[in-house]
Amino acid sequence: MNWINSVVRPKLQSFLNKRESPENLWIKCPETGEMVFHRDLEANQWVVPTSGHHMRISARQRLEYFFDEGTFETHPTPEVVTDPLKFRDERRYVDRLRDAKAKTGMEDAVLVASGAVKGDPFTVAVQDFSFMGGSLGMAAGEAIITGLNIARANSTPFVLFAASGGARMQEGILSLMQMPRTTVAIQQLQEAGLPYIVVLTNPTTGGVTASYAMLGDIHISEPGALIGFAGPRVIEQTIREKLPEGFQRAEFLQEHGMVDLVVHRHELAETIARICSVLMKRPAPGVAAPVKTPAADADGAGNAPPKADATEAPRT
Hints:
The protein is of the alpha/beta class. The chain folds into two domains: about 25-55, no CATH class; about 55-280, 2-enoyl-CoA Hydratase, Chain A, domain 1. It has helices at about 1-15, 40-45, 60-65, 95-105, 140-155, 170-175, 180-190, 205-210, 230-240, 250-255, 270-280; strands at about 25-30, 35, 75, 110-115, 120-125, 160-165, 195-205, 220, 225-230, 260. Strands 3, 4, 5, 6, 7, 8, 9 and 10 form an eight-stranded mixed beta sheet that branches. Strands 1-2 form a two-stranded antiparallel ribbon. The longest helix has 17 residues, at about 140-155. The radius of gyration is 27 Å and the shape is globular.
């Protein structure tokens, strides 16, 4: 009896009370089905090492990966009316907003920040797909316009990371009005001679694609990103034809001239910094500016020519 109590019973209890592994310990690659340890994914900026599939990341993660040493300053954006149309479908719009804020820790779908990228100042706006599908509403529109104005005031390039399912239906026409408003702010930035770089991430669709996401000086995309106005299934049902393989994916759009570059997440910061250095006519990151030397004199000795005496009469 003593042996049963001291040995058998504890082993049975430990077997029955065995702790299960957390559900998020291993993550399945959407392309290959491979199970990847979550710490390996996090260390690789949420890019699957074997397949190269780019997982979705939050706005703050995006900023940490993009800015030097993950250091940046976020900017407050103007407050807007929370529920202008008193919208309700299966749930009230205000309840959906409250849940999205609790889930992401953000006030809305767009986060604006500034910091250094390869030593140069940048202003950045990031759409977070986790916040109601990154949908464009009044608050998101105000955030993007605020970011554009900050870039213009500080004479910095403006980089937009787009990720959206389109306009926010709960705000109706007020959401669609953000398309021309952001377009005007982009024109003002470009008139000031400042670069506007758009990074298209998975997915970028709807009214965002039909407005500010396609008005950049350079359009960059992450590999495999879905980009388009309407989804492939809707297009197939409309035209009643089978779409080409890879239709609306980043690589397909690059071949057809809609996207300029497809860049791996690890190389985004360096690529964008290099592009902006060219557009702003400044030395490339990591390259020292050329040192100006005095002009050589006529005999080639390298000495600067003597300054003319102000009292000397001009020669005729």
